[in-house]
Structures are given as structure tokens and as C-alpha cells.
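[Q] Does anyone have a clean C-alpha cell version of this?
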Amino acid sequence: MSYFQNVFTSDFEGNWVLGDRQHIPKFVVPRNAGRGDEMVVAWTQGPYDLSGTDADGTDTCDTLEIVFAIHNFQNWATLSVDIASGADDTSAVTASEVVAALNADTLFAERFVASLGGWVEDNSSTKRVMIRQRKPATEMRFYIGSGRAEEKLQFNARAGVAELPTYFARHTIANRFTFDDCQNHLIELDVTGSTVDQNIVLDAVNYKGISLGLDGTAQEDWELLEGKSGIFNFQKVTVDGSDRITEIIEYPAGAVVGDLARKVSYTYTGSNTKPDTIAEVPYTLTSGDLITP
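[A] Here you go.
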């Protein structure tokens, strides 16, 4: 029941190992198709309005946050750079001014280099901000933090976004020291507490730039099973006036109208409390059969 973002260049593939070994669902958060192993590029053109705050209303848009790790890829650090520091107008900062501000920052220049990269779109050429790390990918990794200036420049515009069961939060960067099997690969998005994160979900696209159509409403973990697991079952129980079970509609968690279910019918003689017969038959679910925990 969580949305996750993948800011790196390889897909995240997580197997939800259930008790039913016949069904091990795989959940994928696609790679960030808009970057390389050692570089990122802004997906929006300048000039950029960096004069206000981001969608959460608490952080200014003039600061770009670059998260990086050298050699030990668990030890992430954040470099914050004011990319509007030398601009003539903070409400219309050009790509050239952003590049100049980045390269003028001593800590940035030690690890990265910014430049204007060529881009062809709609049959017109333009220049966009590019950031490249100075060390090879075998020695260094980095990504651009969400919110703030990233909201305007959109280095992560084509980062993968997907909904996964809560279990996979163990593989987020935030949990890299919590779980021994953490893949240190994902960022969990807070769609209820952060407008910045919610917008990331709503604006998510595939590698071709086509909207994923996500509505930002997180499903419960059982809904993500989609009726495919045989070990998590729901039962809608009907009883008679004597509090005896007369019918049970049983189906796998996450099943929907039209899916296969099982109907169990009980019959009794007189006032007996134990059934005379029990019949189990195939059954097709209707809307009235579905229950919510």
C-alpha cells in the first residue's frame, strides 16, 4: 500500500515470497529512463521560476539537493546548492545561470561538473542543464533529491514509479541499515503527507514519456494480490435466525467481480445446530459478495 520511486538506472524487481509456493508475485519499479549511470539531465527547459517554495510550501525552490555516495554506497550524503545565487531574476533563472551557479560551488565542483547539453525536441534545438559525476560509476553513485529545485528542473521526470506492498519498504535507501537484505534501491513516496510526493505519482510517465495514469490513491496490500494467492482468503458468511451458518462465499484476497470463488452451502433438519449436508460448488463473484476488512 505504498508508492515507490526508482531514481537509478536498473529496474527494481521484488519477489513477494508467500506460503503458496505456486504463486510468487513479482513487483517491478522500472529504472530511471531519463539518465545515465554517471549523468543526469533536466527534462524541462528554462527559464525557471525559483523565487518561491515547492509544492509542500516549506522549502525554497532555489536549492538543488544532490545525494551521493563514494565507494561505500550505503553512506549517502546530501549536497545542497543555491542554483539561483547568480541569477539576474530568481523568477526567470536561465539554464546558463544554473550551470554557472553549480560550477561555482566548491563542494559541487569537487565531485561533479555541470554543463549545457544539446537537446532536440519538436524539431527545435535547445540547451538543458546536465550534471556529470567526476568519478566512474564503479566508485560513485548519485541522484537528485525530490522537491525544491528538482520540482522545476525535473531531473527525475522519467524515474520509475510503481505501487508495491508495504513489505518492499525494506529495500528503500532509508532502510539500508535496518534490514540485512535491503537493496538500497528505492524511495518511498508519502502520497498523503507530501504534495511533492503526490505530484511525483500523479505526473509519473513510462520510458517513452507516456503518463502512467496513477491516481495517487494507495491500495491495501491485500488488493495488490488481485485474487491470485490461495493462502489469503476472504469469507462472506450468511447465518439464519438461529445463528447457524447457511452459506459461505470464499474467495482469494483482491478478487473482483467476475472472478472464480467457492460457495459452501449448509442445510439443517429442524432445530439441529449441526448441518446435515455441506456442499461446495464453483461460484462467480458479484458486487454484493465483496467484503472489505
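[Q] Thanks! Anything notable?
[A] The two ends are 14 Å apart (CA to CA).
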